[in-house]
From TrEMBL:
SUPFAM superfamilies: FKBP-like. It is an enzyme of class 5 (isomerase). One of its GO terms (molecular function) is peptidyl-prolyl cis-trans isomerase activity. This is peptidylprolyl isomerase. It comes from the Eukaryota. The gene is FBP14-2.
Length: 177
């Protein structure tokens, strides 16, 4: 049998252990689902409106960023920098107002990966809906490839997106135009 003193000591130690602050667990990093062509995506919110199709004109909000490469080749000061994906008449990061975009329009300054992000790939990545918000990570082959994007005087390294860099685009489809 435990003596009264031992029981009180045991209770006090147990209470102290319970009262000790616990370390907060770090939230797990968001996971991105891969597609067959190398695009990775994560739906932050699935829209509740109709699905969007090629040649639909929609209003979107977006932010486009340069991603660090897996081998660390990207200059670290550029990792996460936003850029304007449109050469002429662009809107840059469009947090303040919607940007009108025709899905699947080939203007040579919109990465091929954008259209796939909206229209889905018929497999892992579903077609988006109005009201949806998706983050896509586009590999160089479906972004700006070896030509880069918005290079000043054609100088490699003087581009908004250098040749061979992956990009991340965070966008939301607000409505049809």
């Amino acid at each position: 049998m435990l003596a009264r003193r031992d029981a009180l000591l045991s209770a006090a130690l147990s209470a102290g252990a319970l009262a000790r602050p616990r370390r907060a667990r770090a939230a797990p990093a968001p996971t991105f689902a891969p597609t067959r062509d190398g695009v990775r995506f994560r739906d932050a919110r699935v829209g509740d409106g109709p699905e969007v199709f090629a040649h639909d004109a929609v209003v979107i909000l977006f932010t486009a960023r340069v991603l660090p490469s897996d081998d660390g080749a990207l200059d670290r000061r550029r990792a996460g920098d936003t850029f304007d994906p449109f050469v002429v008449g662009g809107a840059g990061a469009s947090a303040s107002k919607g940007f009108k975009l025709e899905i699947g329009s080939a203007t040579n300054d919109i990465p091929e990966g954008w259209a796939r992000a909206f229209e889905g790939d018929g497999d892992a990545m579903p077609r988006m809906r109005i009201g949806g918000k998706r983050i896509v990570r586009i590999p160089p082959s479906l972004a700006y490839g070896e030509r880069g994007h918005h290079c000043r005087d054609g100088v490699r390294g003087a581009c908004e997106v250098n040749p061979g860099e992956s990009v991340e685009i965070d966008f939301e489809i607000l409505r049809y135009t």
